[in-house]
């Protein structure tokens, strides 16, 4: 397989994956819809930092440990499920609180409109999802030509995924921002947080049961 063919083929696979609604989409939309553009971009770049890290580790052969070691996979799986469940509980519970209690819950899930807070949430959400690592272990090597430098080609393919993710996130943020004025009232915000928190909680349960 030629390098150019590998790039286009991999772009098609990860492009379809990027467009599929999932946890990343929910986090970006929720953050942008609340008018936190700075934080939303932090979430986006945090997610892509995690993606680039998984791609680099896969290219080095490190993530193969996830498939070779059941214990390593289980530890990461439960850590990821616990983090997502914690985020979901705080996000939903804050909608039932008033005053300082709600503000403390908002800060606990990194609700401040800062790039760093969004970046931390996006990075942790991605890196604590072992299914991303398993995806890269299963898919990435298939698109690396035998004659190509393994690490450099792996990073090149991963960069394609990152670029597509950023482009799609740009569309999501622009769309959510356009509708955001209708979603920033107290009632709409509570509904948005409850829906997003429920989605994140379902992802946590799905990760925990290994589905």
Task: Describe the model.
With 211 residues, this protein is an all-alpha fold. The chain has one domain. It has ten helices and no strands. Helix 2 packs across helix 9 and helix 2 (23-33) runs antiparallel to helix 10. The protein is globular. The model is unreliable at 100-110 (pLDDT under 50).
Tell me the span between the first and last alpha carbons. 33 Å
**Count of domains:** 1
Q: Helical segment tally?
A: 10
CA gyration radius, whole angstroms? 18 Å
How many strands appear in the DSSP assignment? 0
Task: Give me the strand/helix succession.
Answer: HHHHHHHHHH
* Approximate helicity band: over 70%
Oligomer: single chain
**What's the overall average pLDDT, rounded?**
82
Strand content: under 5%
User: Which word captures the global form?
Assistant: globular
Biggest sheet features: none
Structural class label: mainly alpha
Poorly predicted runs: 100-110
Characterize this entry briefly.
With 211 residues, the chain is an all-alpha fold. The chain has helices at 3-19, 23-33, 37-60, 64-68, 70-93, 100-108, 115-127, 130-139, 150-180, 186-209.
Task: Describe the secondary-structure layout.
Blueprint: H1 3-19, H2 23-33, H3 37-60, H4 64-68, H5 70-93, H6 100-108, H7 115-127, H8 130-139, H9 150-180, H10 186-209
Helix pairs in contact: 1-9, 2-3, 2-9, 2-10, 3-7, 3-8, 3-9, 5-10
């Amino acid at each position: 397989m030629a390098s150019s063919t590998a790039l286009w083929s991999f772009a098609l696979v990860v492009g379809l994956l990027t467009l599929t609604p999932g946890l990343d989409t929910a986090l970006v939309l929720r953050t942008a819809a609340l008018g936190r553009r700075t934080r939303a971009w932090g979430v986006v770049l945090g997610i892509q930092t995690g993606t680039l890290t998984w791609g680099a580790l896969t290219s080095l052969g490190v993530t193969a440990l996830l498939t070779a070691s059941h214990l390593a996979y289980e530890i990461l799986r439960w850590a990821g499920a616990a983090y997502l469940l914690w985020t979901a509980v705080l996000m939903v519970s804050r909608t039932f609180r008033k005053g300082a209690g709600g503000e403390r819950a908002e800060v606990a899930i990194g609700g401040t409109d800062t790039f760093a807070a969004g970046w931390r949430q996006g990075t942790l959400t991605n890196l604590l999802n072992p299914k991303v690592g398993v995806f890269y272990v299963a898919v990435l090597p298939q698109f690396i030509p035998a004659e190509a430098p393994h690490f450099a080609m792996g990073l090149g393919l991963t960069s394609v995924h990152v670029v597509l993710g950023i482009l799609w996130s740009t569309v999501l943020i622009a769309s959510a921002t356009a509708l955001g004025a209708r979603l920033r009232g107290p009632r709409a915000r509570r509904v948005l947080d409850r829906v997003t928190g429920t989605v994140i909680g379902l992802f946590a349960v799905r990760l925990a049961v290994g589905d």
